[in-house]
User: Fold this.
Amino acid sequence: MFPPLFIFHDMEEIIGLVPWIRLNKTLLTQKAPIILKIHKEMTTEGFALAVFEEFIIVLSITLLAYFSQSRAFELV
Assistant:
């Protein structure tokens, strides 16, 4: 269940993060200049690639836990 929730959550971020940063540039300059400095060169494509890399890791761990039937991956 986690991988579909991860996809749903990050699709919203891929679509909205870069335009939101551009729209709120003056506010970020005043209140959070570090965030603006880190993300000023970010593109939607670059952010999507970073999310894809994280998704591959999440999916790999999920599939490993599912198919290994190991109790080491249980949270409870």
Remarks:
- The radius of gyration is 17 Å.
